[in-house]
Design a protein that fits this description.
The chain contains four helices and two strands; from the N terminus they run αααββα. The protein has 156 residues and is mainly alpha-helical. The protein is globular and about 60 Å long.
């Protein structure tokens, strides 16, 4: 059985981009506040990891949704039909059962962030955190002729 997160509280069906991001958020909370996760969240986190790995193996990427159907089925708004037209976001859009670049990318970031419960969290996989090492400034720009003579601006 697959486990995941809805796009919004008004949505129907799991959206896997949001699922991977929610998994990262749970881990970030755990690390930031130094509190162990409740049994509920620990089980949920493992279930999310298992679901995303299963989808990677099955599809060779992560679909946005695993609910079948098309836009015509979605327009009928029968969320309990066998093929309801994907996962409804709750904001008048659906995600269909196709491999999805953002779902796959967030799954990769989530698994890089922490692959297993007993492993450390790798903050460099979190795109919302500054990198642990500064960005290089002495980069070869020969393939960018328009950048010759341009001095990079470093964020402080």
């Amino acid at each position: 059985r697959l486990n995941g997160t809805r796009f919004t509280s008004g949505g129907h069906g799991v959206q896997f981009e949001v699922t991977a991001g929610a998994g990262m958020a749970i881990l970030r909370y755990k690390q930031k506040y130094g509190k162990p996760l409740s049994d509920f969240f620990s089980r949920r986190l493992q279930s999310v990891r298992d679901s995303l790995r299963h989808l990677l193996g099955m599809y060779g990427g992560v679909p946005a949704s695993v609910l079948g159907g098309n836009f015509k089925a979605f327009a009928e708004r029968d969320f309990f039909a066998e093929f309801p037209g994907g996962s409804d976001t709750g904001i008048h859009f659906t995600y269909l059962r196709y491999r999805h670049i953002a779902s796959t990318m967030w799954t990769g970031l989530f698994l890089l962030y922490q692959e297993e419960d007993d492993q450390p969290i790798w903050e460099d996989a979190n795109p919302f955190m500054p990198p642990s090492k500064p960005m290089p400034t002495d980069v070869d720009r020969s393939c960018f002729p328009w950048l010759h003579g341009v001095t990079p601006v470093l964020a402080t």
